[in-house]
Design brief:
The protein has helices at 12-16, 64-75, 102-105, 207-219, 225-236, 242-256, 273-283, 291-297, 307-317; strands spanning 22-24, 35-41, 49-57, 79-82, 88-93, 108-112, 117-120, 132-134, 143-148, 157-158, 170-176. With 322 residues, the protein is an alpha+beta fold. A hairpin with a 5-residue loop joins strand 4 and strand 5 (88-93). 43% of the residues are buried. The strands form three sheets. It has a six-stranded mixed sheet with strand order 3-2-11-9-1-10, with helices on both faces. Helix 5 (225-236) packs antiparallel against helix 6 (242-256), helix 6 crosses helix 8 and helix 7 (273-283) runs antiparallel to helix 9 (307-317).
């Protein structure tokens, strides 16, 4: 007999009650005007952003739900929500196909006593709705969760309609397949105490990464394209550790602030043969470049550091069109 609970609709109501709550750890006051940043994320099913991080203006006293509704109106996205006991996002119009990451499907959530083997989360995944994404899609414990800034177990847990916005707040709407366990929020919400799964893995704080993506979208900073893509990929990777998250952010800031330019890996102010050699050493695994260095070395913007980048750098030095 399996020691894991069977995920059924009978336990969904209690689990989704947590979906009406968010975790507000207090904003980093980096904005002076009444703007917040909101992202709507379908990372748990491998489908990227429903809405990439976007700045949304608000009036003093506005709550999270008002800003979210404003965002959906601006993006012409339809949604369904419940308002009894607080605003809860039930579903969002979003055309998608299932591409659930293996780090979720391969998560061990129980043990089969009869077969003497681990039970993987993939056993409990069903079909979703191709044109919308919301509660009960893929599992009976799925739904939308939100956080404000860095999640904190000691912070007040309030519904969106009870959470007043502050300048600079970063709000993340995350689609969860298992009461937060797949997005690193189950433990913070105390779900294991109620018999639900613990977090599958640790997650990093992506508040500032999300903020940077929103600013990049607004500013359309072309020279930072490689680093921008790196930020997106890191955001989409739910179990990315803090070092990876911080490195992606640092790489973008280095380009944005003019401290580096594409191809100038040694940051001496010009692209030289030395930079091409550094690319070759990275490829040969002699001297590996850090995340920032790899973004700067990706001369052809194909999201990889390869021989082609070294050749393109040498062509540029020689005055030959790449």
């Amino acid at each position: 007999m399996k020691s894991i609970k069977k995920i059924t609709a009978a336990v969904t109501a209690a689990a989704l009650a947590f979906g009406a709550f968010g975790i507000n750890a207090g904003a980093q006051q980096t904005e002076t005007d009444n703007t917040a940043i909101i992202s709507v994320e379908a990372f748990s099913i491998g489908c990227g952003y429903v809405v990439e991080p976007t700045k949304v203006s608000f009036e003093p006293g506005d709550t999270v739900d008002k800003a979210l509704i404003k965002l959906f109106e601006q993006k012409s996205i339809s949604y369904e929500a419940a308002t009894g006991g607080g605003f809860y996002l039930e579903s969002v119009s979003f055309a998608h196909t299932e591409n659930i990451p293996s780090y979720i499907t391969d998560a061990v959530v129980g043990y089969d006593d009869e077969l003497c083997e681990d039970v993987l989360f993939s056993e409990y995944i069903d079909e979703g709705s191709p044109d919308s994404l919301g509660q009960y899609d893929y599992t009976a414990l799925s739904g939308w969760l939100f956080t404000v800034n860095k999640p904190d177990a000691e912070s007040m847990q309030l519904s969106m309609s009870q959470t007043e916005l502050k300048p600079g707040d970063v709000i993340r709407l995350q689609f969860s397949l298992d009461c937060g366990a797949d997005v690193g929020l189950a433990d913070l919400m105390g779900m294991p105490m109620w018999g639900y799964d613990s977090d599958f893995y640790s997650v990093s704080d992506k508040t500032e990464l999300t903020r940077a993506i929103a600013c990049a979208n607004e500013e359309k900073f072309t020279p930072g394209y490689n680093a921008y893509i790196k930020m997106i990929r890191t955001a989409e990777n739910i179990p990315a550790d803090q070092k990876e998250t911080d490195s992606a952010l640092e790489a973008y800031n280095a380009l944005k602030d003019g401290a580096a330019s594409i191809g100038d890996i040694d940051n001496n102010g010009s692209v030289t043969v030395a930079d091409a050699i550094m690319i070759q050493k990275h490829i040969a695994d002699i001297e590996r470049l850090d995340a920032a260095g790899q973004c700067i070395a990706d001369f052809n913007s194909d999201e990889a550091v390869s021989v082609s980048d070294a050749i393109d750098v040498q062509k540029m030095i020689a005055g030959i069109s790449a």
